[in-house]
Amino acid sequence: MRIIALPLTSSVRSPRLVGSPSPLVYYHFQVPPKAANKRSGWVDWATGKAAGIWAQFGKASESSWKFKIFTYGERLVDRVDFEELALKGVDPSMGPKLSHPRSPSEEQTKTTFIPLVHPKFVGTSLLVHLETILARRTPRHRKGFYTWMLLAPLTAPFMLIPVVPNLPFFFCVWRSWSHYRAYKASEYLQSLLHRGAIVSHSDVALDGIYATHVPSESLHDSTKSISEDGREVLLSRDAVPRILEVFGLPESAASDIYRAIEQAKARLPA
């Protein structure tokens, strides 16, 4: 498992939080692929089935209601916080197992260290930043999970509408499931942080990417302090293909990074 930290802005103040501004960072959680001989449970089957049906909607005729629903659904996904989308992609079962050692020496022997890869110019402050983000999002996703789960039964009257499926129900289920995945991932990552299993690791290749695809004045300002009150986006869309190439990420990761960049631009003060 590997965590790739991509600073998006030098600093931004969230209207929902009180305190000093903090940078927006996209964390990509690179987990190992599932073993071919590992049996999939019913949850994996249902998730794959839903993903397949949704993909078929996207391949339908542009004039059909399926394609229109797909287009509108993708717009809704774009509005979901990129932090949530990144977290829900973490499968704790595919990461290092959390054991309970009987002694400190046994704990040190069994601990598997996970690198938090980041550009050198941000220093080691991202460990604290990640811990802060997880502390904020864990209760938020727990609340979102229960809220959307309780709202789902209220959509039952829409089942009376013929032809078109009960879209409000499926939306509530999807939002509840998304929050649940993000909630469990947040708890898992917090446990790894508390055990000291996540370690900071600067990567000169990332510095090279930022230097190539970021205006020189933006990079110069960010080297002073990533938490200063800046208003600049540090990562451009042109850098994404190079990031995928350097870290061996799948093409599907590009859409998540693009979405994070666009949301970062929208969150910057006017």
What do you see in this structure?
The protein is of the alpha/beta class. The chain has one domain (2-142, 175-267). Helix content is 53%, strand content 8%. The chain is built from ten helices and four strands, in the order ββααααβααβαααα. It has helices at 42-58, 65-79, 82-87, 104-110, 126-151, 167-194, 204-213, 216-224, 240-247, 252-267, and strands at residues 2-7, 25-30, 114-118, 198-202. It has a four-stranded mixed beta sheet. α1 (42-58) crosses α2 (65-79) and α5 runs antiparallel to α6. The longest helix has 28 residues, at 167-194. The chain is globular, with a radius of gyration of 20 Å. The two termini are 38 Å apart.
- Most strands sheet: 4 strands, mixed
Structural class: alpha/beta
Q: Looking across the biggest beta sheet, what order are the strands in?
A: 2-1-3-4
Strand percentage: 5-15%
Dominant shape: globular
Low-pLDDT runs of 5+ residues are 222-229
- What is the strand tally? 4
List the helices and strands in order. Answer: EEHHHHEHHEHHHH
Keywords: Membrane, Transmembrane, Transmembrane helix
GO biological process, one term: proton transmembrane transport
Pfam family, one: Mit_KHE1
Protein name: Mitochondrial K+-H+ exchange-related-domain-containing protein
From the structure above, extract its key features:
Mitochondrial K+-H+ exchange-related-domain-containing protein; 53% helix; Mit_KHE1; transmembrane; 270 residues; transmembrane helix; membrane; globular
